Amino acid sequence: MQKLRTGAAYHGCRMLNHVEADMRDMADHHMNTVVHMFSHTDWDRHCRVMRDIVGISEEAGLEVWMDNWGLGGPPGDKSHFLAYHPEAHQILSDGTMDPVRVCLNAPSFRAFMREWIDAVAASGAKTIFWDEPHLPSRADGVYSCTCPVCQKKFEARYGRPMPKTLDDDARAFRLATIADYFTELCSYAHEKGLTNAACVMLGEQHGIHLGTLDSICSIETLDNIGSDPYWGYSGVNPYEFVYPRAKQNLEIAARYGKDHNIWIQAYNTPRGREEEIVQATEAAYDAGARTILAWGYFGSISNDYGAKNPYLVRATMNQAFARIWSMERDRTLAENRAAFRR
What we know:
Order of helices and strands: EHEHHEHEEHEHHEHEHEHEH
Number of strands: 10
Helix content: 40-55%
């Protein structure tokens, strides 16, 4: 029987007394997993503290995932790495430099990420959460990355220069870039005894998305593959939005023998729309998801994009998790009773 994981992404606080209170609060409210950010700033300034945070989290009974937050640029912070390696900027196909994103093919960045994996292993965390890998593109066909390293690799693969606007070869190359990046780094993380979990976005403009999830699922050392079907409080029915996308994610993961993760939007929640969180959480559970995580803890109160009423979002998220834990226990009890009666 697959373990039910519920939890949230935890941002910002590095004061251990507050972290301890928050981890206990999560454990008290039906959560057994926490996703901590391990940013470049954390690596530079909070390495010892991050080890302590892992210990505090595990003491509270939480499984710890470490997020590569902003190391290569958005989503997350702007990449600090580029201050040391300006040659590693992504270059868009119209010739402009992306000021904040790192090319995944840059050899210096691959080496940097190996060192970061070493730091995660030293923290005591057991799982790396690879957060929304992507190579952006625009509606006008301009895309990334077309830096000299990528141009050379593209020409070697396809026997022609990289196109100025996105075409089938460029799409395939971008997927191959992401797959190669993860093949190298997930393998290295496995050597360090770490589990690899990843999450991709839904939109085609991100280079890899739910519809192209197969492109990285074949990576042997990628253990867990997920997505974040955020409905955006846009007026769509959250159950109808989340259920089919979660179902598709789970079917792909099962096809490759992978575990999964599904994310619930607990940020940017307008006042009066908090109940949609319950509907979305139940949709993910009904679709078969058993790792269901919220972005983020306490309605993402530590971020400018936090919920408009984070206290009510916190309460609603806790209620949503309580409901699916009750559903899971009822399901388990029914199965046990049926087996006993046979």
